[in-house]
Amino acid sequence: MACQKLGSRADVFRKQGQEWYCTSGLPSDITVVVGEQSFHLHKFPLLSKSGLLERRIREKIDKGEDSWVIDLSDIPGGSKAFELAAKFCYGVKFEMTAANVVHLRCAADYLEMTEEMSEGNLIAQTENFLTQTVLRSWKDSVKALQTCDDVLDIAERLQIVKRCVDSVATRSCSDPDLFGWPVAQYGGPMQSPGGSLLWNGISTGARPRNSSPDWWYDDVSCLSLPLYKKLISAMEYRGISQEIIVGSLNHYAKRRLPGLNRRKSISDVSNSLSMTALTSIPSEDDQKYLLEEIDRLLPFQRGVTSCKLLFGLLRTAIFLKASPSCLSNLERRIGMQLDKASLEDLLIPNISESVETLYDVDCVQRIVDHFLAMDQEAGGASPGLGEDGQILASPSLVPITMVAKLIDGYLAEVAPDENLKLPKFRSLAAAIPDYARPIDDGLYRAIDIYLKAHPYLSESDKEELCRVMDCQKLSLEACTHAAQNDRLPLRVIVQVLFFEQLQLRNSIAECLMISEPLDGGGVSRQLAGLSIDEHHRTAGWPLATRENQTLREGMDTMKQRVAELEKECTAMRQDIERLGRSRSAGKSRFPFALTAKPQVCSTKDKDAAPETSKTAETASRDKAAVVKGGAGGDGTPKVKLRKHKMNLSAC
To answer: Residue 440: CB partners within 8 Å, gap ≥ 6?
Structure first.
């Protein structure tokens, strides 16, 4: 740190408790009170340098007061600044540095120590040192700017803040290697070209090692928020890149918001400890104000601010109960680049007392809504279909496809929460458009986990939840798992079986199409010389089409038969209940009540029972025939229909 020595006399000031005395051999004739400290001085050295003290002393002489006590408690810089000003009046030696020049300059202005009072007065000395030495050094400029907090109003009036900010902003926008600034002293010692360390700070042409655009982050993070905001504004005015400004904001926020360091890595432990030692932890109100100001300073532009920083600020804002506008802005910023987020980022703990869920699902829902709205504003739309009915790939679908995969993973993480209600889970799952999911395996996994964690759901609720899933977009592995999943509704299992067989048929057909000759013009000539096996392979595609159509008709018939059997079972149960009630009315009035039940369910009856048995056997044979043609050999549909038949016989 640069310094300038003023004065030539030895130090004659002595302090005893809160009292300062000038031991020059003469008794003091004036007392200056600054706060809790008193300075017993002599009026003539002060009169020759300070216009304010001269005016105060003359007023007391004119009034004939015997008390020579002058109160200067409102002097900028306090007792320390007045002590240095008094030493300057007495010509006592002291050092003027970047740490005290601002306070000394403001105190000199307050005391009116101008050139009219004395040539080479304190105002001229401080201005010269500030302009010629401090503002030409990065380190001294930052230090002088940091000391402006206590005298901010006067420092702004004297243009000290503006000059320091301009100096820091100009140097931060430049490459430190061009000027040989001693920046490396913050990260380690500098080395000479020969490899030896610099001695006593003397430059030998060495360059700082590993200089990067973020070399100044740690230096400016010691500034107070008002000064830091002025510095950021000056940097933006000079055209510094938004990425560098965001990096500085990130460093500044992590140093003053302890909540952002909760997910730090092991390598950052030492840095966090040093930051904590240098700065005291602010109160929650100060942290909330700081966070809201940082939100205003962040550029509202996609891709500039990392999702990790935005999610960290959002968690801290929720914990500190920041303003709704701050929370909304952070959610909107995250929504702009949700495709760059990770699953860990979305797992925001819920601290609300009114909601019992483990994670804040409502917050994620709002973020997804912001993303979809901005995607539509950016021109995003549902993709077109090709001639074969397949979705056409488009680069614009990459972000929303990544978000769909991210939300499916998030749903699987929050699904085990027993307090997560079905409408909230289904709303988040249905928020993603159908075209954003090329495959629904991730969504099926989340639904299966939710059904397992919520076994009390009714059949209608399960069907409503499964409607958000498209069974046609399940892979063969997912279809195999779903066909054996007892937690799924029966209708969903039937759909899965159908589409599973359809996928198998399509796979076979694709293999047959690939094996066909690619030369369409020579087909007629080649068919003449084909062998019997080649001819059957060529004719395989029409055969697969017919079998596929037969399978589709068989599955539709099976669906109708299952519905009819359910109706018959319901009617039979109603008959049994009516017969039971009639039997309780009395045997004399209904003598046939004892034989009513065998007439409905017994297979030995000659009138009603054979018809019922025949109906059940016919339905079972129809269902078995359809399943046999479309089950693919795994036996799963047969097991389910056999169980259904056993339930009918139990009636």
So the answer is: 469, 470, 471, 473, 474, 478
Long-range contacts from 603-607, C-beta under 8 angstroms, 24+ separation:
none
Gap between the Cα atoms of 27 and 587, Å rounded: 133
CB 559 within 8 A of CB 626: no
Whether the pLDDT of residue 604 is over 60: the answer is no
Q: What is the DSSP string of 325-373?
A: HHHHHHHHHHHHTGGG--HHHH-PBP--SS---SB-HHHHHHHHHHHHH
Amino acid letter, residue 79:
S
State the burial class of residue 409 (Cβ atoms within 10 Å of its Cβ: 0-12, 13-18, 19+). middle
Per DSSP, the three-state class of 97 is strand
- Over residues 286-325, the pLDDT tens digits come to 999 999 999 999 988 888 899 999 999 999 999 999 999 9
Tell me which CATH code domain 3-132 carries.
3.30.710.10
CA distance 144 to 428: 53
What is the SS3 assignment for 446?
Answer: helix
Query: Per the structure block, which two tokens stand in for 387?
Result: 């001639």
CA distance 632 to 307: 47
- Per mean pLDDT, which range of 232-246, 361-375, 577-591 is the poorest? 577-591
94-97 and 3-6 strand pairing: antiparallel
Tokens describing residue 84: 């240095």
Let me know: does 465 contact 451? Beta carbons within 8 Å: yes
Q: How far apart are CA 336 and CA 369, in angstroms?
A: 10
Contact 626, 558 (CB under 8 A): yes
Q: What share of the chain is helix, strand, coil (3-state, %, to 5)?
A: 65, 5, 30
CA distance 489 to 239: 61
pTM of the model: 0.69
Q: Where are the domains of the chain?
A: 3-132, 241-263+275-336, 507-515+535-650
Q: Which helix (H) or strand (E) holds 40?
A: strand 37-41
DSSP string, 202-265: ---S---TT--TTTTHHHHTTS-HHHHHHHHHHHHHTT--HHHHHHHHHHHHHHH-GGGGTT--
Determine the average pLDDT of the residues in 130-144. Answer: 93
